[in-house]
Amino acid sequence: MAKANVDPIRPSNGTGTTIRPKEAAFFAGLAKDWWNPKGKMASLHQANPVRLAFIREAVNAHWSLDEAALRPLEGRSALDIGCGAGLVCEPLARLGADVTGVDASAENVAAAAAHAEGSGLDIRYMAGEVGALDIGRFDLVVSLEVVEHVADKRAFLADVAARLASPKDDQGGLLILSTPNRTAASRLLLVGAAEAVGYVPRGTHRWSDFVTPEELEAMLAEVGLEVTHRRGIAWRPGKGLYLSDDESLNYILSARHRD
To answer: What is the domain count for the chain?
Structure first.
């Protein structure tokens, strides 16, 4: 059986200033329940198929791949920044990628490594700031529901961009980001109602930290990236979460180095 592992932190010259200790501690407290589809992280389990559908479409488009390929990421490296307990890392590994997951919480990466080992998946996990880890560059970088939690969004996005493979190589790296939009609807539903009914743990979100698509695209442009595709993640009774043109609650995008 393949064995997942947790690497020690290896410092580099990154900023190392984006993690909020209180945020890291909050999510560390959820580590043991992360893989329970009916537990406190149920919302992420429900969002995962939608996010993965977008990732698959973006990967196919970026590298002009066969839509029917079972392992489209074979031979490519992938990095999940803010990986939690590995809900996205494991599907990426099954799609053929050589996966590294980084999270601010040591408890989360320990839970991720244990689950991957039990699933027979060889995934490398590391705890710490992505900008302070000497881990090189990756073909695919994903960071889902993370940017709204960091202390310095511009510094974080600069660290993210620094992890993307050079545009000189095979189309360059592909970035996938998702985050809640800062709208009246998200304030009412994602923060107010969702936390009130227990759909997400109370204290998960601070609405003032949400980023609009226009703001995020501008910050990505500052670090040399251009958005190639963007979709909303909407919710409807009887249908649940789905990709949509409605970005009022949440959105997901792909980006690459500017030509």
So the answer is: 1
Q: What range does the domain containing 45 cover?
A: 5-257
CA distance 142 to 158: 14
- The number of helix segments (H) and strand segments (E) in the chain equals 8, 9
Other CB atoms within a 10 A radius of the CB of residue 68 amount to 7
All residue ranges of the chain with pLDDT < 70 are 1-17, 23, 28, 169, 192-201, 203-204
pTM: 0.88
Distance of CA 165 to the CA centre of its chain: 17
Nearest of 194, 121, 189, 163 to residue 257 by alpha carbon:
163
C-alpha to C-alpha distance for 119 and 3, rounded to whole angstroms: 9
> What is the distance between the alpha carbons of residues 152 and 147, in angstroms, rounded to a whole number?
9
CATH number for position 170:
3.40.50.150
46's CB contacts (< 8 A; 6+ apart) are 240, 241
pLDDT digits (tens, 9 = 90+) for 134-161: 999 999 999 999 999 898 999 999 999 9
Token pair 């992360």: residue: 34
What is the C-alpha to C-alpha distance for residues 225 and 74, in angstroms, rounded to an integer?
Answer: 25
